[in-house]
Amino acid sequence: MRRPVPLILLLGPLLVAGCTTDPATPAATPSAPAATPSPTVAAVDYAAWQAGRSTPVADPVYPARGTDAVDVLHYDLALEWAPSTTTLTGTATLRIRPVKDAPNLVLDFMPYQLDGVTLDGATVPGAVAKEKLTVSAPVVADKPVTLVVTYHGRPRTTPMPSQRKDTEALGLTLTKEGGLWTMQEPFGAFTWYPANDQPSDEALYDIRVTVPAGWSAIASGTPAGQSGTTFTYRSTDPVATYLTTLAVGKYQKLTAKGPRGVPLTFWYRKGVDDKLLPYLKKSPQYLAWLEKKFGPYPFPSGGVVVVDSASGMETQQMITMGRKIENTKARRDRWGSDLLHEYTHQWFGNSVTPTTWTDLWLNEGWAKYAQDLYTQETLKLSDASLDRYLREGDAVLRKKLGPPGRPDPKRFAEGNVYLCPEAMLHEIHREVGDKAFFALARAWVQDQRNTQQDRASFIAFVNKQTGRDFTALINAWLDSKTTPKKIAVG
């Protein structure tokens, strides 16, 4: 997610943000009748989705979201959007590996009208209440099943647990023109499909969206063709639910090539987003700079969709950028700088994902540091100015928000999980020098590709990569209530 504290504000005050709306929650939705035996069902080869296998972990920051009892291997989403009635119709086919024996399956899901639920071809009871779908059918650990849920209804959002001023309610959002867009960190994918909505359960995706003539549908993943007014996207690298995206509108498409010929696609509204085209067209430049620092871009395609938001989101392979992110006199390249931040997340956060929201700093610290190093290079700022900015900013944010390693669930993604771990990375950088630091950064994202990581694994990796003991330094910067002083490294 876009960082709220830019280096370019060296001469101005630090800004930290605030809030969202609280949508009404619909009543529980009853579902299908009691289970009936299925006719002959063809055997399913679940090996085809093994790249989507995860080890789910119950999230300690948002325990009501997701479950460690389910590992979704693959989501197949067939969606249709009707702007005239603001109705989303969906068929979600989930290939699931139960992690535990259980009397039912429970997933996160907005209370849409359920039109049918089947498990391995048999009709089973299902109901939605309090943003949970409960499928009343027993499952056995490590015996994969196929869940199919058909549904329809008007999309609704869910509240954002933060006081940032540049965020809106989470999930699938309606536009005045009858379009859609979504941002859903730390959760909110469940507002448009049934999901295990937590970072530790990554899965493969196939998404097909049918829209009226003259409209376009954009989703995360690699574009896989268009048939009539149905747009298809595929993710062959695993994706966390918060990194999926969907946008529908009357978009224009622009294409480009990134480093090594990586295809890039940009979606914008003509006459609305035209002033942002110069930033979109700089994408190959941003990616070339990032590849120089962190190694090859980790996915087969990339791109950006512009939506009516005041923020940005690093949604995998198709970044979701808010049109309302404004340049100001003090921050004359804010939109472009934020876009580079979101591109950095394709390495830090997307390819290597935190196991739980406790370690959001693993995403944001790296992305913010890359962003500020880019700003330092392009504006030719001194090392002393960067040091001063980080130290002064760290002190302010720790005092207001606490240390980054112990995030407040009510203040998700506020400034302390951006700048404070950035300052920690800067200390490691100064300790080991350019060559060793960027070798470490490249190894972290390339060696851990498509995995979930946490503080312990990061510390172990840094110590092994450098041959020195950074444990005390890293823990101090993540846990101290005040800005750490110089810490000796073993």
Secondary structure layout plus pairing:
Elements: E1 70-82, E2 87-98, E3 105-108, E4 113-119, E5 122-123, E6 126-129, E7 132-135, E8 145-153, E9 171-174, E10 180-183, E11 203-210, E12 216-219, E13 222-227, E14 230-239, E15 246-249, E16 252-257, E17 263-268, H1 277-281, H2 283-294, E18 302-307, E19 312-313, E20 319-322, H3 334-345, E21 352-354, H4 361-379, H5 383-401, H6 416-432, H7 434-447, E22 451-453, H8 455-466, H9 471-479
Parallel strand pairs: 1-11, 17-18, 18-20, 21-22
Antiparallel strand pairs: 1-2, 2-8, 3-7, 4-5, 4-8, 6-7, 9-10, 10-15, 11-14, 12-15, 13-14, 16-17, 19-20
Helix pairs in contact: 2-3, 3-4, 4-6, 5-6, 6-7, 6-9, 7-8
Organism: Micromonospora maritima
Pfam family, one: Peptidase_M1_N
Domain Peptidase M1 membrane alanine aminopeptidase: 281-477
Supply database-style keywords:
alpha+beta; 22 strands; Neutral Protease, domain 2; 490 residues; 8-stranded mixed sheet; 5-stranded mixed sheet
Description:
This protein is of the alpha+beta class and 490 residues long. The protein has a domain at 355-479: Neutral Protease, domain 2. Helix content is 24%, strand content 26%. The chain has helices at residues 277-281, 283-294, 334-345, 361-379, 383-401, 416-432, 434-447, 455-466, 471-479, and strands spanning 70-82, 87-98, 105-108, 113-119, 122-123, 126-129, 132-135, 145-153, 171-174, 180-183, 203-210, 216-219, 222-227, 230-239, 246-249, 252-257, 263-268, 302-307, 312-313, 319-322, 352-354, 451-453. A hairpin with a 5-residue loop joins strand 16 and strand 17 (263-268). Residues 8-39 have low confidence and may be disordered. One of its GO terms (molecular function) is aminopeptidase activity. It is an enzyme of class 3 (hydrolase).
